[in-house]
Amino acid sequence: MLERRVLVTNRLGLHARAAARLVRAASAYQSTIKLARVDGSVAADAKSILSVLVLAAARGTELVLTVAGVDEDAAMAAVCELFERKLGEERD
C-alpha cells in the first residue's frame, strides 16, 4: 500500500469536469484508489464520481491519496501526475 499527500491547485477545485478526469484515470487501474481530506472528515473512492464530489475539495485542499493493489506504483504515479497538472486544467 502506498500513501501520499496531494494538493488541489486548479482554480475551480475538484469540480465535476476535474472529478471526471480523475475517475477516468483511476478506473484504468486494478488497484484500490482512495482519497481522503487530511482532517479525516470524509474519504472517497477515486473510481466513483459521486464519491469524489462529496470531498468538496476546493483549491488549496490537501488530500491523502492511498493506493493498494497489483499496479499500485503505476496508479500512484498517474494520479499524482494528474494533480500536478492541475487535474487537466493547466491554464488556471
What attributes does this structure have?
globular, 92 residues, alpha+beta, 3 helices, four-stranded antiparallel β-sheet
The percentage helix is: 25-40%
Note poorly predicted spans. none
Taking all Cα atoms into account, the compactness measure Rg is 12 Å
Helix vs. strand class? alpha+beta
Walkthrough of the structure:
- Helix 1 packs antiparallel against helix 3.
- The protein starts with a strand and ends in an 8-residue tail after the last helix.
- It has 92 residues and is of the alpha+beta class.
- It is globular and about 35 Å long.
- Strand 2 and strand 3 form a beta hairpin.
- The protein is built from 3 helices and 4 strands, in the order βαββαβα.
- It has a 4-stranded antiparallel beta sheet.
- The mean pLDDT is 95.
